[in-house]
Amino acid sequence: MPFQIYSEPARSILTRTSGFIAEAGFTHSLTPARNCTFGCSYCYVPTMGIYGGLRPHDVTHWGQSTTFKSNAARLLARALKPDQMIYCSPLVDPFQPAESDVGVMGGVLEAVALRPPDIFVLQTRSARVLEYLEALKAIASRTRLRVSFSITTDDDAIRRAYEPHCDPVERRFETVRELIANNIDTFATLAPLLPCDPDRLLDRAIDATRNPIICDPLHTRVGKPRGATTRPAAALISERLGLSHWHDPEFQRFTVERMSSRAAAANRRFATGPAAFRFLTER
Ligand code: SF4
User: Fold this and answer.
1) Closest ligand 1 atom to Cα of 123
2) pLDDT tens digits for range 90-149
3) Angle (CA) 2 128 120, round 5°
4) Number of domains present in the structure of the chain
5) CA-to-CA distance for 279 and 3, rounded, in angstroms?
6) Distance 76 CA to ligand 1 centre (A)
7) Taking the model in full, what pTM does it have?
8) How far is the CA of 265 from the centre of ligand 1 (A)?
């Protein structure tokens, strides 16, 4: 089914942070669209409902449409301040597939380059970020620009099962390498941690990057009674594939402890949860 792509003006573009992102040290979040056409089976955003600024159709049809904020760049130009630490975005991938057709991020990045905040972080899993390399270089020359690049597994069959619209694993590692080759400060973000060979995934992340490693297992209602959590669609896929233990807090604890020790042995910092995302706001 083709994606439905809409555009409408928004009332505001920067939101004061709360919860997870605030704990990580960010002062503001920036969301250029509502709903994300990557449509990942595990996406936490639709489980937030109206608290994520979503409308009922966004929740029930997650990933099937997106509504870009047509005035994002203009609003942002007026809202940017030099002391802000901005996370873009907790609610969509800023370089989701439809972005190539609509191009909202071009204006957003131009505004950021003209009035740079203290820290500007792009959270993405999309090779489309490379289409904006010149704009990223312009921002990086003026402030702390960081790209937090999601690589969720080392197994492309798993990627196809849980996030079929996202770029393949190899393309994601290539993108990370290309960003770093262009002096863009880039983090490997192993989140959410999907079924994988954790040693192999971690070793590849350590090999591809120089920064601390960010990790976060799939959220579960057992471990997180309130707030955003994994969409039921991912749990159903895990059940079908006999991989439900990846949602089990005890198995997750064992896996991340093992990864943490392995990272320490490679002299690399490693964390999960807000502590991990705090790496992105370090000065
Ligand atoms: S890319 Fe991020 S925001 Fe978009 S559907 Fe996937 S998890 Fe959700």
Assistant:
1) 2
2) 999 999 998 988 889 999 999 999 999 999 999 999 999 999 999 999 999 999 999 999
3) 120
4) 1
5) 35
6) 22
7) 0.96
8) 32
